[in-house]
Amino acid sequence: MNCPPILLLLLLGTVSALHLRKDAPKLEMPETVTDPSQNLECSGEPEGELALAEKEIPSEGAASEAAECKECPEKEEPLDLESAPVDKDLQCPREEETVRVLGTPGCKTCGFRLVLAQQTFVNAQAVCQRCYGGSLVSIHNFHTNSQILCTVSRLNVCQVWIGGFLRCLNFQWTDGTCWNYAYWAPGQPRCGCGNCVAMNTRGGGWRRTPCVQPLPFICSR
To answer: Where do the segments described as Disordered lie (predicted)?
Structure first.
């Protein structure tokens, strides 16, 4: 049976298409890259009980995390820790008002203490020095930030003090260690208000916050 030229061309085209489809490489979907802050692995449980209710708080979300600068209600004066006044009636927290956070595995002297009683930044630093022989915590890597976040994320407050503060246009740690790491929330620190640094209890990002704001805090020990 003789095939017309047009029909022969159609048959050859179909065979070629099937051959190409068979030998064509499979396309693989790219791997999804997730934010590491959303996949934190908590190592162990903190020692002690949280005095504040372990209440699930909705995430601050994109609206509050957006990098939109808003005018601060009033400009805060530069912080001088050496001359800043501390409350005369400041007392050490009771044991039940604190939670011990385990430090690096294998280091018995490493660790932190979450103090649930809310204090201003200056008073919090004074408590860390007088009561625990340390300072507000300095954070130098993602692992430490994650460890602390695993504990403070249980609190029903939005922020806790860490040891960062702004002085002479540079951020410093209260314990004098080098400022070699930062985990700023979106829009921070450029759009922040205040000269002291607090950690968000949802996500672990850092924010500039007015130093007079009473907050729970983390001491090194």
So the answer is: 30-50
Structure tokens, 163: 């040891």
Q: Is the pTM of the predicted complex or chain greater than 0.85?
A: no
Tokens of 165: 């503060």
The pairing of strands 111-119 and 215-220 is antiparallel
| pLDDT greater than 80 at residue 191 | yes
Give 39's DSSP letter. Answer: S
C-alpha–C-alpha distance, residues 165 and 121, integer Å: 9
Residue 165's nearest CA partner among 103, 112, 120, 102 is 120
In a domain, 22, yes or no: no
How far, in Å, are 106, 130, 159, 175 from residue 133 at the CA level?
21, 6, 23, 11
Whether 142 contacts 203, CB under 8 Å: no
Which domain CATH number covers 189? Answer: 3.10.100.10
How many Cβ atoms sit within 10 Å of the Cβ of residue 50? 16
**Does 62 fall in a domain?**
no
